[in-house]
Each structure stands twice: as C-alpha cells, then as structure tokens.
Amino acid sequence: QVHLVESGGGLVQAGGSLRLSCAASGRTFSTYATGWFRQAPGKEREFVARISSSGGIRSYADSVKGRFTISRDNAKNTLYLQMNSLKPEDTAVYYCAAAAYGPYPPTSYDYWGQGTQVIVSS
User: Fold this and answer.
1) Is the pLDDT of residue 102 over 90?
2) Model confidence over 68-101: pLDDT tens digits?
3) 56 touches 45 (CB < 8 A)
4) Beta carbons within 8 Å of 70's beta carbon, 6+ residues apart
5) What are the phi and psi torsion angles at 30 (to 5°)?
6) How far apart (Å, rounded) are the C-alpha atoms in residues 46 and 93?
C-alpha cells in the first residue's frame, strides 16, 4: 500500500497564497495518477485538481481554475498544490489521493491522506 501525508495548511488572509505538499511512500509513486480534493464543514468532498503520473496532463475544478496549480516531483515522491488568490470559500480540509492503476483520468482513488486544514480569513 501507499501512505500519503499532507502538509502546508494553515491560516491566510484573502488574496494570499499557500503551497500544500503531499509526501508519498513507495517506489511506484511515479506510476500513480494523483489528485487533490477538499471538504468544507457540512459539505460533501469535492474534486479540486488532478495530474497524470508523468505530470503531463492536469485538470482543475472550475472554481479554482486560474488560481491553483497542481504539480508533482516524482524524484521526491511528492505532490503539490500551489494556491494563489485565496478566497474565504476555499476554506476546507484538503486531501491528496492516488490511483494505483487504470486509465486516465481515474474514476476512483485507492489511497488517501488524512488531510490538512486551510482557513482563509476575510
């Protein structure tokens, strides 16, 4: 199995930036499609962004297009989410996830981190 650990969350003012990281275990990380999801209090988990195993294909939710950038460094077994121009509605727990196999884009993910809290103040 793969173990995922998110970091980089915190409190930031509206208009500010944060960079989230997701450290993954295992030698096969470079073969996994990965993504970021978030869940606000009282709401369902929603898709934020995904990236193919090589990093060549990236997709974003409409709500974050132009503000967030997903990337990965396979040599470091790490996934990133650069968040700029943050808004209060971005406040949520952010989770990284990995799909072990299958076509791209994945329809489900096999491994999940425990999440990191992001709070954006007005």
Assistant:
1) no
2) 999 999 999 999 999 999 999 999 999 999 999 8
3) no
4) 35, 36, 49, 50, 51, 58, 60, 79, 80, 81, 82
5) -65, -15
6) 11
